[in-house]
Amino acid sequence: MIRDILIHPDPRLKKLCEPIAQITPDIVQLAEDMLETMYDAPGVGLAAPQVGVNKRMFVMDCIKDGPPEPMVLINPEILWQSDVPHEYEEGCLSIPDIYSPITRPDAVRVAWTDLQGARCEHEFTGLWATCAQHEIDHLNGRLFIDNLGPLKRQMITRKMEKLKRERARAL
Question: What angle do CA 17, 152, 58 make, to 5 degrees?
Fold first, then answer.
Protein backbone atom coordinates (compact mmCIF):
# COMPACT_ATOMS: atom_id res chain seq x y z
CA MET A 1 0.00 0.00 0.00
CA ILE A 2 1.31 3.42 -0.91
CA ARG A 3 1.41 5.64 2.17
CA ASP A 4 1.26 9.41 2.42
CA ILE A 5 4.66 11.07 2.82
CA LEU A 6 4.84 13.79 5.46
CA ILE A 7 5.94 17.20 4.20
CA HIS A 8 8.24 19.50 6.18
CA PRO A 9 7.51 21.26 8.47
CA ASP A 10 5.84 18.49 10.43
CA PRO A 11 6.80 17.90 14.08
CA ARG A 12 6.88 14.12 13.51
CA LEU A 13 9.89 14.59 11.20
CA LYS A 14 11.92 16.18 14.02
CA LYS A 15 11.54 13.42 16.63
CA LEU A 16 14.13 10.86 17.66
CA CYS A 17 12.74 7.49 16.55
CA GLU A 18 12.25 4.51 18.84
CA PRO A 19 14.18 1.27 18.30
CA ILE A 20 12.24 -1.71 16.97
CA ALA A 21 12.25 -4.37 19.70
CA GLN A 22 10.75 -7.19 17.64
CA ILE A 23 10.11 -7.88 13.97
CA THR A 24 6.38 -8.44 13.80
CA PRO A 25 4.06 -8.91 10.82
CA ASP A 26 3.20 -5.19 11.18
CA ILE A 27 6.89 -4.27 10.76
CA VAL A 28 7.17 -6.50 7.69
CA GLN A 29 4.05 -4.86 6.23
CA LEU A 30 5.44 -1.40 7.02
CA ALA A 31 8.65 -2.29 5.14
CA GLU A 32 6.67 -3.49 2.11
CA ASP A 33 4.53 -0.34 2.16
CA MET A 34 7.60 1.88 2.49
CA LEU A 35 9.33 0.23 -0.48
CA GLU A 36 6.18 0.59 -2.60
CA THR A 37 5.85 4.24 -1.51
CA MET A 38 9.55 4.96 -2.21
CA TYR A 39 9.44 3.46 -5.72
CA ASP A 40 6.16 5.25 -6.50
CA ALA A 41 7.45 8.67 -5.34
CA PRO A 42 10.09 8.00 -6.93
CA GLY A 43 13.02 8.10 -4.53
CA VAL A 44 16.10 6.12 -3.49
CA GLY A 45 15.39 6.08 0.26
CA LEU A 46 12.54 6.50 2.72
CA ALA A 47 12.59 6.51 6.53
CA ALA A 48 9.68 5.38 8.71
CA PRO A 49 9.10 8.85 10.22
CA GLN A 50 8.45 10.15 6.71
CA VAL A 51 5.30 8.01 6.64
CA GLY A 52 4.35 9.00 10.20
CA VAL A 53 5.84 5.99 12.02
CA ASN A 54 8.27 6.83 14.84
CA LYS A 55 10.42 3.68 14.44
CA ARG A 56 14.12 3.22 13.59
CA MET A 57 13.77 1.73 10.12
CA PHE A 58 14.43 2.86 6.59
CA VAL A 59 14.39 1.42 3.09
CA MET A 60 16.67 2.25 0.18
CA ASP A 61 17.54 1.21 -3.35
CA CYS A 62 20.16 3.30 -5.15
CA ILE A 63 20.26 1.23 -8.37
CA LYS A 64 19.41 3.50 -11.28
CA ASP A 65 19.99 1.09 -14.18
CA GLY A 66 19.38 -2.60 -13.73
CA PRO A 67 17.26 -4.79 -11.51
CA PRO A 68 16.15 -3.28 -8.19
CA GLU A 69 18.14 -4.00 -5.03
CA PRO A 70 15.73 -3.04 -2.24
CA MET A 71 17.14 -2.95 1.28
CA VAL A 72 15.33 -2.75 4.63
CA LEU A 73 17.48 -1.56 7.53
CA ILE A 74 16.07 -1.92 11.05
CA ASN A 75 17.78 -0.15 13.98
CA PRO A 76 20.71 0.96 11.78
CA GLU A 77 23.83 2.49 13.26
CA ILE A 78 26.93 3.94 11.69
CA LEU A 79 29.99 2.09 12.99
CA TRP A 80 32.62 3.96 10.99
CA GLN A 81 32.81 6.83 8.53
CA SER A 82 35.47 7.84 6.06
CA ASP A 83 37.53 11.00 6.52
CA VAL A 84 37.12 11.65 2.78
CA PRO A 85 34.33 14.17 2.12
CA HIS A 86 31.87 13.73 -0.73
CA GLU A 87 29.45 16.38 -1.97
CA TYR A 88 26.13 15.26 -3.42
CA GLU A 89 23.09 17.23 -4.58
CA GLU A 90 20.57 15.90 -2.04
CA GLY A 91 16.82 16.02 -2.15
CA CYS A 92 14.15 14.56 0.11
CA LEU A 93 10.68 13.13 -0.46
CA SER A 94 9.51 15.20 2.55
CA ILE A 95 10.89 18.37 0.93
CA PRO A 96 9.76 17.90 -2.69
CA ASP A 97 11.56 19.58 -5.58
CA ILE A 98 14.25 21.15 -3.37
CA TYR A 99 17.89 20.12 -3.86
CA SER A 100 21.10 21.36 -2.33
CA PRO A 101 24.73 20.20 -2.29
CA ILE A 102 25.49 18.48 1.04
CA THR A 103 28.93 17.24 2.09
CA ARG A 104 29.06 13.95 3.97
CA PRO A 105 31.67 11.19 4.42
CA ASP A 106 32.24 9.29 1.16
CA ALA A 107 31.96 5.89 2.86
CA VAL A 108 30.25 4.51 5.97
CA ARG A 109 30.09 1.12 7.65
CA VAL A 110 26.55 0.46 8.87
CA ALA A 111 25.17 -2.30 11.10
CA TRP A 112 21.46 -3.15 11.14
CA THR A 113 18.93 -5.94 11.56
CA ASP A 114 17.15 -7.30 8.48
CA LEU A 115 13.53 -8.48 8.25
CA GLN A 116 14.56 -12.05 9.13
CA GLY A 117 16.14 -10.83 12.38
CA ALA A 118 19.74 -11.33 11.18
CA ARG A 119 22.41 -8.81 12.16
CA CYS A 120 24.01 -7.31 9.04
CA GLU A 121 27.00 -5.06 8.44
CA HIS A 122 28.13 -3.44 5.20
CA GLU A 123 30.37 -0.64 3.98
CA PHE A 124 28.49 1.71 1.68
CA THR A 125 30.16 4.14 -0.73
CA GLY A 126 29.01 6.86 -3.11
CA LEU A 127 25.25 7.38 -3.42
CA TRP A 128 24.55 4.38 -1.14
CA ALA A 129 26.63 6.02 1.63
CA THR A 130 24.92 9.38 1.12
CA CYS A 131 21.48 7.75 1.19
CA ALA A 132 22.20 5.70 4.33
CA GLN A 133 23.46 8.80 6.17
CA HIS A 134 20.49 10.89 4.98
CA GLU A 135 17.99 8.25 6.17
CA ILE A 136 19.75 7.69 9.52
CA ASP A 137 19.55 11.48 10.00
CA HIS A 138 15.75 11.15 9.59
CA LEU A 139 15.70 8.54 12.39
CA ASN A 140 17.51 11.07 14.58
CA GLY A 141 15.06 13.90 13.77
CA ARG A 142 17.33 15.67 11.28
CA LEU A 143 16.58 16.77 7.73
CA PHE A 144 19.16 17.46 5.03
CA ILE A 145 18.27 21.16 5.20
CA ASP A 146 19.55 21.20 8.79
CA ASN A 147 23.00 21.18 7.15
CA LEU A 148 22.24 24.49 5.41
CA GLY A 149 22.51 28.04 6.71
CA PRO A 150 19.57 29.52 8.61
CA LEU A 151 18.41 31.85 5.81
CA LYS A 152 18.30 29.12 3.17
CA ARG A 153 16.62 26.72 5.62
CA GLN A 154 14.01 29.37 6.46
CA MET A 155 13.34 30.04 2.76
CA ILE A 156 12.83 26.32 2.09
CA THR A 157 10.54 25.98 5.12
CA ARG A 158 8.37 28.85 3.84
CA LYS A 159 8.15 27.16 0.39
CA MET A 160 7.06 23.91 2.03
CA GLU A 161 4.45 25.69 4.17
CA LYS A 162 3.04 27.25 0.98
CA LEU A 163 3.05 23.85 -0.77
CA LYS A 164 1.15 22.29 2.15
CA ARG A 165 -1.46 25.10 2.05
CA GLU A 166 -1.89 24.64 -1.72
CA ARG A 167 -2.28 20.85 -1.33
CA ALA A 168 -4.83 21.33 1.49
CA ARG A 169 -6.89 23.70 -0.70
CA ALA A 170 -6.84 21.17 -3.55
CA LEU A 171 -8.50 18.49 -1.39
Answer: 25
